[in-house]
Amino acid sequence: MPYRHRVAAGALCAAMLTGCVSATEADPEPGAGGADASKQQAQRIQSAIADCMKQQGFKYVAWVPEQDALEEFDKASSGDYEAMRRERSSHGFGVFDLLADPGGKRVVWSESDSPNHTIKNELSDAQRAAYDKALTSCGNAAIKQVTGRVVTSEADRAEQRNKLIDQTLERELNGEPRLVELAAAMGDCLKGKGYRVDSLKPVDLDRRGAREFEAQKRALAMKDDIPERDLPEGRYYEPRLPQATAKQYLGREIKAALDDLECGRDFYAAYLPRKRAISAQVGDLFGGGGI
Fold first, then answer.
1. List of residues 6+ apart from 168 with CB closer than 8 A
2. CB 158 within 8 A of CB 290
């Protein structure tokens, strides 16, 4: 069986309600409205979906997953040096870690946790197809009702959200004088260690390491025996690698990630809290995480 596909620019594991959210894929902390406001928004979306599904003749339970605190991950994603070092010592940039250790992904919630998973599995194949079609339609309508955003699917919602996050980060952070100064120092340090640095823009520098190893993994995926057919643009099946080989790639990734952290210790401490706040604020415009 082929590996699940993932987005080259950053893993997404999302579908309309179903799918999974892992620690490295989880949404940032809520934006200006706070955790309660974000949760209430998610509950309104779920209630709207449940009402719509009932009108379509399907049973659906309004369900908002309770996510673990993930204190260690939260610290790392906020620029805490010690937490980032512990994270990168095991997972690098988060590219080859799942291939090297298939059981090592830290899942916050999965499809089977939802009561709707059982409801759907009790349906026939034809009924499940109709259920999925109705859920997509109801999910789109609920997003528009609660947030005013027009989406065509959960994938489209994620794409719109991520695009706006990227645009906002680039507009607000790439020209911030202190971040520009810290990024230049980090870039000089990385070049001194022999790493290639194509851009000193803060947003690009933050993404540099993960993109480098993602490109390596994509190249491996294009060469293996799994055909990349019928996938959305930019997606591919995880490459089929012997675990020992994947661990070698992860070892190189961990070294690079730790070097990157040492050079960017001051940069990340200033940049990541800003990035996290912007990502959360934009995410709230689309109703937070996956439906």
1. 278, 282
2. yes
The model's pLDDT over 71-108, given as tens digits with 9 standing for 90+, comes to 777 888 899 999 999 999 999 999 999 999 887 655 56
Beta strands in 199-253 (DSSP E): 235-237
Give Cα separations from 179 to 31, 159, 172, 272 (angstroms): 21, 27, 11, 11
**Confidence category of residue 143, pLDDT binned at 50, 70, 90:** very high
The per-residue DSSP string of 44-84 comes to: HHHHHHHHHHHHTT-------PPPP--HHHHHHHTT-HHHH
261 contacts: CB under 8 Å, gap ≥ 6: 81, 84, 85, 88, 268
Confidence of residue 28 (pLDDT cuts 50, 70, 90): very low
In the chain, where the domains are located: 5-285
Phi/psi of residue 140, nearest 5 degrees: -60, -45
Tokens of 171: 């507009």
